[in-house]
Specification:
- Belongs to the class I-like SAM-binding methyltransferase superfamily. RsmB/NOP family.
- GO terms for molecular function: RNA binding; RNA methyltransferase activity.
- One of its GO terms (biological process) is RNA methylation.
- Keywords: Methyltransferase, RNA-binding, S-adenosyl-L-methionine, Transferase.
- By secondary structure, the protein is an alpha/beta fold.
- The chain folds into 2 domains: 150 residues, Orthogonal Bundle (N-utilizing Substance Protein B Homolog, Chain A), CATH 1.10.940.10; 257 residues, Rossmann fold (3-Layer(aba) Sandwich), CATH 3.40.50.
- The chain contains 17 helices and 12 strands.
- The strands form 2 sheets. Strands 5, 6, 7, 8, 9, 10, 11 and 12 form an 8-stranded mixed β-sheet that branches. A 4-stranded antiparallel β-sheet has the order 2-3-1-4, covered by helices on one side.
- Helix 6 packs across helix 7.
- The chain binds S-adenosylmethionine (SAM).
- The site of S-adenosylmethionine has 16 residues, from helix 13.
Amino acid sequence: MASAESQRQEAEHHPGLPARLAAAAIFGDIIAKGHSLEECFSAGAIPARLGGLAPRDVALARSIVTAGLRRLGTIRAALAALLDKGLPRQAAHLEWSLIAGAAQILFLDVPDHAAVDLAVRAARLESKTAPFAGLVNAVLRNLIRGREKILAESDPLEHDTPPWLGARWRKTYGDDLAFAIARANRAEPTLDLTVKSDPELWAQRLGGRLLPTGSIRLTTHTPVTELPGFAEGEWWIQDAAAALPARLLGVAPGMRVGDFCAAPGGKAAQLAAAGADVTAIDRSAERLKRLAANFERLRLHADVIVADIVSLKAPPFDAVLVDAPCLSTGTIRRHPDIAWTKKPGDIAALSAIQARMLDKAVELVKPGGQIVYCTCSIEPEEGEMQIAALLRRNPDVARVPIRPSEVGGLDEILNENGELRSLPPHLPADEDRLAGLDGFFAARLVRRP
Ligand SMILES: C[S@@+](CC[C@H](N)C(=O)[O-])C[C@H]1O[C@@H](n2cnc3c(N)ncnc32)[C@H](O)[C@@H]1O
């Protein structure tokens, strides 16, 4: 290992180096150790990987990691073709540095020579990898030569989607839609806002586009904290599809609503802004702190409870929203790490918890009260099949179909049972950067009186 002192000296002479070292280390944390992208760049993670980095370097490291994860399959296939003998075992972690270099060369607006030079310097910093600095140089230079062909031949489904997910999506949605989902996942996500009130006025003030669903889609590059209305708590960031489930509950002022799995509070804020008396429940005290901070900025109120929903005891609610934990495959555009950190076996464990949460929602909603169940997953086990199973096992529950007028007239995001099923290629736009929706499932139910 390089001493901290030699790293510090190198970094002083080569200002771009710390961001590349951090990016390479974080690729390892995510791909090999299964940490999430959000966790790696959260405030708590800073001392471990990002300590001492200037905000500009943290932003660059994040761009490298995000671009690299979004196109990981393409990068790995290209590197494998150039490394016919693979990487030497003692220097296997050079892969992270090569991935970071390749992400810059293929997908970021970074000068090629900087990407190569800094990857070579990073390799020289460690005794185990130093003998292979020449190999790093040769591989990345060959990558530059082959760039056009690599990009032209890169297929979203074959290369940038893990095979098990690609196979699932083909089976569920057919070849064409599976391809469209994979292609949409490679695009940068849009920046959508939910406003407390008067979306037309705020769309105008923020120079954004008012979507048929009522969300505002922005094109600005101004940091969100500097935009009008942020400090005043007039709006919050929330994907346009994620904003739909809470609206389907049709809350009226004073209604007692249980938000099951509430943190960090995007949907709870919608319910509270609509005048509901919200009880926000989540088992993560840490994430509920974020909800509390968000609510403070938005000047909204909710009663907050740290609890496991499965064993929750509470007086009955007028309505319940269940935003259950899930595989989150509908949000790969925003969280490209999900494609590589989730495993096929996760679905069975998650769908068992989802079923128990649904049963709890039925138990804790008053007779005649409504439940909206949602997940940001495009896997049917966590959506359509979950509701079909609940309706089979509990005759006291019925579906209340969602009408197109409740989702901005977007018939294509409703299925034949009147459930919401949005997918990343939905909501196309004249400009690619304004297109797309997170993949969400939502069903509205009523506990029979
Ligand atoms: C999809 S997120 C919720 C997002 C939130 N509703 C929003 O709109 O901002 C799922 C949440 O479920 C919580 N969670 C997972 N398992 C839980 C359980 N057994 N009981 C309570 N909360 C749970 C997680 O801590 C996480 O905050």
